[in-house]
Amino acid sequence: MRLLPDTALAASGRIRALLIQRNAEIHAYMGELDGALAAIERAVTSGLIDVAWLELCPLFDDLRADPRYAVVHATLTERAAGIRDALRRDPDRPGHSS
Description:
Elements: H1 6-29, H2 33-45, H3 51-56, H4 67-89
Helix pairs in contact: 1-2, 2-4
């Protein structure tokens, strides 16, 4: 039996990803690079789509040379591109012109 509608489940996933993002930033701030990367990986697994956050957060400057960062960045970039492409194809979205 499902207790939450699909939209609530999706929202809870976004909230989970947001909380994990915060944890990644805290780990990075504390100099715990392995913990920060592990949290980023968990955020991506939880449905993170915020490429700008990953690319621009200055707390992650020291992480960007790590090969694990490249893997999560590629996964996230591919996911975001898929969403962007789907939105561009959606004729029902506001501002779409055929």
